[in-house]
Amino acid sequence: MKVLFIFGTRPEAIKMAPLIHEFKKHTAINTKICITAQHREMLDQVLEFFNITPDYDLNLMSPNQTLFDITAKALKGLEGVLDTEKPDLVFVQGDTTTCFVGALAAFYKKIKVAHIEAGLRSFNKYSPFPEEINRGLTGKIADYHFAPTAKAKNNLETEGYKDNIFVVGNTVTDALFLGLDILKNTPSPQHSALFSHINFDKRVILVTGHRRESFGKPFQNLTNAILEIAQGHPDVEIVYPVHLNPNVRSVVNQTLSGVKNIHLTEPLNYADLIWLLNQSYMVLTDSGGIQEEAPALGKPVLVMRDVTERVEGIEAGTAKLVGTNREVIVTETQKLLSDASHYQTMSQAVNPYGDGTTSKQVLDILLTVEENING
């Protein structure tokens, strides 16, 4: 059986990595890897960290690329890969443009598609944009839906899908545990240099914020909230790896530069990010991945978005939706900093995104189903 993994961004690479390692252990499966490199440098860092070598690299990333550029170039590039490899099954992950186009290309070649992290929905087609539509369209094409939670499965069933929906948790937890094991076994000396100016004897708040739907006044509100938290709590250290998007950098640098207990860094590679996450007290974020990773380490999350497709964390109590309202962000952060029982409740809530066995579950399910189909 030949399986082709298609991905193109750092988040996809992180969530595909443990799955690829699991599949490569199985001698009955011929595992191939194609990256579109919709992202380049950040993607390469993850591939190196997890020791993954692609068989195909479309190298699509270009300056000022648009969704039109990525979609057209990826679709045409994948045509040649699929013609050469003729896989039995294509794996795509999540909700990126690469995910949707990978599914579409496989569909055009009448190749089966397995969708990892299927069934997430915000029910607002412009938030997150374009991810909400990408995952819905991928679901239309997929033959296997590997849903991270029961709620995601329910979303798919509500949309009329009946067959091959499996609740398996999220591979992001597998990747997190695998990554921390790698760091434990091969200590990275750059950590001490990279974070040497941060006092880890204090409580550390990790901040990530870059969603395009927040650009403008909402993002200014968000950064104003971080400033107020820093000024009101000199006993905490705030670390903000700043996204490369100029819409993010200009506001962050203008509002938060020069504050003693705010540390603005360049975007962190995956190894440094999970190391920092493991050291952190809590997280302020609009990132989907960190909403899933932090609960596995018992870190409360305040989600700085108006809507999130990862509602399981909200319902489980590992995360709280605070939007981009300055006052709400500040109030909820202060509550976690000052109320030990509230912090304990969030940090000890059961992680709804899996226990680190998702990759093995996916492999076992696929082998069982395909064996039944092929007799």
TrEMBL record:
Q: Which UniProt keywords apply?
A: Isomerase
The GO molecular function terms of this record are: UDP-N-acetylglucosamine 2-epimerase activity
Q: Which residues lie in coiled coils?
A: none
Under the heading SUPFAM superfamilies, the entry gives: UDP-Glycosyltransferase/glycogen phosphorylase
Please state which protein family the record places this protein in.
Answer: Belongs to the UDP-N-acetylglucosamine 2-epimerase family.
* Record-linked PANTHER family: UDP-N-ACETYLGLUCOSAMINE 2-EPIMERASE
Which NCBIfam families does the record associate with it? wecB
UniProt-recorded name of the protein: UDP-N-acetylglucosamine 2-epimerase (non-hydrolyzing)
Report the source organism.
Microscilla marina ATCC 23134
